[in-house]
Specification:
This protein is α+β, with helices and mostly antiparallel strands and 137 residues long. The protein contains three helices and five strands; from the N terminus they run ααβαββββ. A hairpin with a 7-residue loop joins strand 3 and strand 4. The longest helix has 18 residues. The model has no long low-confidence stretch (mean pLDDT 88).
Length: 137
């Protein structure tokens, strides 16, 4: 996909904004990236983190930010973003990418963000993260 494409840029910017909320442990800013009207489900690559209600998802994230739950490296670290693909139609973007923890790059985390545009802002209605089974030992 052409890097100058506005849909691609919007999708990539969403990933950066989303990740920045984790790096800064900013739950309020993160809440602004989700659609309150159309949220369906969040599937995570860590046990016990899935949510089918937005409030449950935010409660789990607030606990994660406050209590520094275990991660692969022991802290929240910047993610490498690879292989971004964006598909756009009307007011929907489907953004997929391989995310990698810098300290533990394999297995990568296959990530999909389904976004809808609300008041000219891209917001998540569904997010899915899963470790790449092709890279697991």
């Amino acid at each position: 996909m052409d890097v100058s494409n506005s849909a691609y840029q919007a999708g990539l910017q969403f990933i950066h904004d989303y990740n920045r909320c984790f790096y800064e442990r900013d739950i309020d800013r993160l809440k602004g990236l989700y659609s309150a009207q159309g949220f369906t489900v969040f599937w995570d690559n860590h046990a016990g983190c899935d949510s089918d209600r937005l409030e449950d998802h935010f409660d789990k994230l607030a606990d994660f930010f406050a209590n520094e739950k275990d991660t692969e490296s022991g802290t929240i670290e910047e993610l490498l973003i690879e292989d971004v693909q964006v598909h756009a139609s009307a007011n929907t973007l489907i953004v997929s990418a391989m995310l990698r923890y810098a300290s533990v790059p394999k297995p990568g985390v296959r990530s999909t963000f389904v976004l809808t545009q609300e008041d000219a802002i891209w917001k998540a209605v569904h997010i899915h993260h899963s470790f790449d089974p092709n890279e697991q030992n």
